Amino acid sequence: MGIMDSFGWPLVAKVWSVIAILACFIGGVMTIISFTPICWAVGLYLVALAALILLIEMPFLFKCNECFVAVGNRASALGYYQKGVVYLILCAFGMACPITSLIGGLAVFILCVFYFFAGIGPKGSAASRSNSAASAGESGSPEDKAELLDVVAQ
Fold this sequence. Notes:
Radius of gyration: 22 Å
Number of strands: 0
Order of helices and strands: HHHHHHHH
Number of helices: 8
Strand content: under 5%
Structural class: mainly alpha
């Protein structure tokens, strides 16, 4: 029994969102301290992206403003695939400058991947896979059943 059987992808995505927030914020601040206007823009974008991820993932921190509450409620109603698509779109611009912004953009991309995994759902246990494979082979010939059992046993 692995760690994914106990907790699942949604919890991994929530934990990784904290890492993505920190990576975006720190990378954005470090990118702002450069001398090119494009890096200033990317740095400000990463800081805003960190605030947006914080609002989407932890809406309970923003109860002071009703606009933030409405956005947080709408974001918490999104499905896993929808959150994954939002993060996929948002991470594209964050990877336009040096390594500091690339780290923040990659952290958001990995968050997107974890939400897609959460949308796929947990994989079945070995017993449920063998039961479904055995039931699928009941209408076949005995040779097909033997071959199916050999595949399941491996």
